[in-house]
Specification:
Blueprint lengths: L5 H13 L6 H13 L1 H23 L2 H6 L2 H27 L13 H13 L2 H14 L6 H25 L3 H31 L3
Helix pairs in contact: 1-7, 1-8, 2-3, 2-8, 2-9, 3-6, 3-7, 3-8, 5-9
Length: about 210
Amino acid sequence: MIAEHLPNLFFALGIFSLGFVAIGPNILAVMGTSMARGRSQGAALALGVGLGSGIWASLTVAGLATLMTAYAGAMIVLKIFGVAYLLWLAFKAFRSAAKPDPAALEAGAADGHNMVLRGLTIQMTNPKAALQWIAIVAIGLGPNAPWQIGLMLVASAMILSILVHLAYAVTFSTGPVIAFYTRTRRWIEGTLGALFTFAAFKLATSRV
């Protein structure tokens, strides 16, 4: 019974995986944090993003995300929070770029718990995630799919999200990357600030 639904499940996870190719705000945040604050902070942020993926998947499987998208007011509020948070990340990046001394960076300003919360916030304030998950769940949970398939989809997506974002954290916290970041820190932070600002603009002007 379960086996006949596995092809749809794997296809849905494949579509979900394609999203990691596009560098979005969550991946940008993991990359920037890993370069500026080290692997442990980047990994904590990656964990938060992955947990957010699991929560969105759970809400969608339970039907709550679909219900939320039916009310324009709820999506507008979520969009406002998302835009505001992306602009806050842009402000922090620009502020870091303006600091001439790398030692002035907030290397130890945030502990792991704060970074987990930051990653969770980035993921949960993205209304496009709700729409993405509605499509993924519609593919992964075919007609009459047992509850075990829904559970497998949620668990697999969360684990996959954590692992991929951890891979970004590890990659961008290696010695050569850190050395490059140290030499070009202000340019990198300025670029991240511009990209976060652009992401906020795209979200604000989208028809979500």
